[in-house]
Amino acid sequence: MKEKWIDLKGKSVIVTGGSMGIGEAVVEDLRNCGARTAIFDMEEPKGLGEGGDVFYVKTDIRDKASVEKAVELTIRKFGTIDALVN
User: Fold this and answer.
1) What is the mean pLDDT of residues 40-65?
2) Is the pLDDT of residue 73 over 80?
3) What are the backbone dihedrals phi and psi of residue 51, each rounded to the nearest 5 degrees, phi first?
4) How far is the C-alpha of 35 from the C-alpha of 27, rounded, in Å?
5) Would you state the pLDDT for residue 70?
6) Burial of 27 (0-12, 13-18, 19+ CB in 10 A)
7) Where are the domains of the chain?
8) Residues near 70 by Cβ (< 8 Å), separated by ≥ 6?
9) What pLDDT digit, counting tens, does each position of 4-44 carry?
10) In whole angstroms, what is the distance from residue 16 CA to residue 9 CA?
11) Could you tell me the CA-to-CA distances from 63 to 12, 46, 58 in Å, in that order?
């Protein structure tokens, strides 16, 4: 989706499973709407790249410590978390 359907400028969103498939499409759409996105996944994203608005954290969502570390890194990077897409 290339159309900006909502203004998310300045918002930070975590997307679990955002490295491929539907999750990758969600990340792309959120970025198009201005959001900074943190991808929590076991696989590194291939087509999204990284930059100021995208942040990949290798995360095993079955492991509480892994999730807590990923959240901590995301807050350190973006300052806040405004939404979560599972």
Assistant:
1) 87
2) yes
3) 175, -165
4) 9
5) 98
6) buried
7) 14-85
8) 14, 38, 40, 57, 59
9) 788 999 999 999 999 999 999 999 999 999 999 999 999 99
10) 20
11) 22, 24, 12
